[in-house]
Write a structure and sequence with these properties.
Layout lengths: L3 E4 L6 H13 L7 E4 L25 E3 L7 E3 L1 H10 L7 H14 L10 H23 L3 E3 L8 E5 L7 H11 L4 E5 L3 E7 L15 E7 L11 H13 L7 H7 L11 H9 L1 H10 L24 H13 L6 H4 L7 E2 L6 E4 L4 H6 L6 H13 L7 E4 L6 E4 L2 E4 L4 H6 L1 H11 L4 E4 L1 H8 L5 H4 L3 E3 L5 E5 L2 H6 L5 H13 L2 H4 L15
Parallel strand pairs: 1-2, 6-7, 11-12, 11-15, 15-17
Antiparallel strand pairs: 3-4, 5-6, 7-8, 8-9, 10-12, 13-14, 16-17
Helix pairs in contact: 2-4, 10-15
Length: 520
């Protein structure tokens, strides 16, 4: 029996292939009895489903092929995605391969679980090759302006030599990217031209309507592409000046920008001379005297003198004003205001947290948000009057990231903690507490001077500024984020930690506590 020859209308006759493949499947014609002539072109859908497929428990969703009766077939959605790209390949046997895969998907159920099948591997290789060619065309097309008759919009033309039949598939990308530009891309196989709609044109009708006219025509020769112009010379000058010889990696560059594309890239003519000079230029750069860097942030605001003996409250106010202008880290630029400490001077305890939150940033006061309300509850249960304490944070500005209209708290980094260290140290010198309570790891690090594993050292006394004792415990926000099932036990354990400092509130600190552990 002679093979059945299927002749499609053109290289891009994708509807013809879809129609013929459906007929062949319905007639149970095996792949080895079909000869395909003139491969097809991709379309949005491979086969239209006339009825929703019946779901199979535990399996991937299927897409139905053809109509009712024996010709009604289903294939995995991944096969549709594969076809949409493989049909762009230049291999003349690509549609024979796709029809063979389709036939086997229907008659060999185990094929779907065999990723090492030769036909599947070949289709996968073709898919990757097409994707690579699509990417290279998007990256390496260079437009050049050409002369136009007076009264017509300027035209920019590019020359490109794709490996596969991708021109029509990639044209919408250039339409979206250069919607307002009149452009054309010439290739050996076919050419594409985009003419944007005039500014005074009526509004478009329909969601899929393009704001202009996209035309496809026959192929062209490289001689028809425009020659270099003055704008290209300016680009080459810019490219030569931004070339960094210390970061030259020729093998990586050749991998990302293969040499076959260099003939169409103006900057490619500079690669060889710039690479030859790279070693010498790198040596000169290393031996050159470094230039003085320009600060991207204002210089540190002058600090007021510490005057704890005469007017510590005025000194604290002046210190807070200086901290508000601090730009030693980026936090001060984006926060609403500085959130300095608040409370009594020479208190029995100074409670130090991590950083202000959203509500603290808006109010300008520490511990007024959800964590502050939880702390107030703990102080009330312990019998600690808040107005007898001093509450502050290791970092004085709110660090956050935007999620829509919400400002989500972010933990400060080491840079922010170090930038705020000067403000905390001078604040401690003015407040003159008898002891500290470090609420969380950030506060513990700022007071003790090293990283403190809070969970293993909570409830312990360490040595802080001026040799004063520092009690380590959790930040109240840690309880808010904890497991709801362990809420009560976590609350009692936290109160037990804080209760270790109650003797300072009662004025019984002399000899009542174990000595703080000395730091190496």
């Amino acid at each position: 029996m002679s093979p059945r020859v299927i002749t499609l209308e053109s290289e891009i006759d994708w509807p013809g292939f879809r129609r013929e493949a459906r007929t062949l499947l319905a007639s149970l014609v095996p792949p080895d009895e079909v000869v395909w002539q003139t491969p097809g072109h991709p379309a949005p859908e491979l086969w239209q489903a006339e009825a929703p497929p019946r779901p199979v428990a535990g399996s991937a969703p299927m897409r139905r092929l053809g109509g009712s009766g024996p010709s009604r077939l289903v294939v995995p959605p991944a096969f549709i995605t594969l076809c949409e790209k493989v049909v762009l390949h230049q291999d003349p046997q690509r549609f024979a391969l796709l029809y063979r895969l389709l036939w086997r998907l229907v008659h060999e159920r185990g094929l779907r679980q065999d990723p090492l099948d030769p036909d599947r591997l070949r289709a996968r290789q073709m898919l990757q090759s097409v994707r690579r060619d699509l990417h290279k065309m998007k990256a390496f097309v260079r437009f050049r302006p050409v002369g136009q008759p007076e009264g017509e919009p300027p035209l920019s033309v590019a020359w490109f030599e794709p490996e596969h039949h991708i021109v029509e598939a990639v044209a919408p990308f250039f339409v979206r990217r250069f919607t307002q530009m009149h452009w054309a891309i010439l290739t050996p196989e076919c050419s594409v031209r985009w003419m944007p709609a005039p500014a005074n044109s009526p509004p478009l009708a329909g969601e899929d309507a393009l704001p202009g006219e996209l035309e496809f025509g026959p192929g062209a020769s490289k001689e028809q592409a425009p020659a270099p112009d003055q704008g290209e010379a300016l680009w080459l000058t810019y490219y030569a000046h931004i070339f960094n010889p210390a970061r030259l990696k020729l093998s990586m560059m050749a991998k990302e920008m293969p040499r076959k594309y260099w003939a169409n890239l103006p900057e490619a003519q500079l690669i060889a001379p710039l690479a030859a000079q790279a070693s010498e230029r790198t040596t000169r750069m290393v031996q050159a005297v470094p230039a003085a860097p320009r600060r991207r942030i204002p210089a540190r605001a002058p600090l007021p003198p510490v005057d704890s003996m005469h007017d510590p409250e005025a000194s604290l106010a002046a210190l807070a004003k200086s901290a508000d202008r601090c730009r030693d880290c980026p936090l001060g630029e984006h926060a609403t205001q500085v959130v300095f400490g608040d409370g009594a001077l020479q208190p029995p305890l100074m409670l130090v947290g991590e950083q202000p939150g959203d509500q603290e940033d808006l109010a300008g006061q520490p511990f007024v948000g959800p964590a502050g309300r939880l702390l107030d509850r703990a102080l009330q249960e312990l019998g600690w009057p808040r107005d007898a304490l001093y509450l502050t944070n290791a970092v004085k500005h709110f660090k956050f990231e935007l999620r829509g209209t919400r400002r989500i708290h972010k933990s400060p980094g080491q840079r922010e903690v170090l930038a705020c260290q000067q403000w905390l140290e001078r604040e401690v010198a003015l407040v003159r507490p008898k002891a500290f309570v470090a609420l969380g790891a950030t506060a513990a690090r700022a007071l003790v001077g090293r990283a403190v594993p809070v969970m293993s050292e909570r409830g312990q006394w360490l040595t802080g500024p001026a040799g004063l004792p520092v009690l380590i415990t959790l930040h109240p926000s840690a309880l808010l984020r904890g497991d709801p099932a362990e809420k009560d036990s976590a609350w009692r354990a936290w109160l037990d930690d804080l209760a270790l400092a109650s003797r300072y509130i009662r004025g019984e600190e002399e000899g009542a506590l174990s000595q703080p552990r000395a730091e190496a």
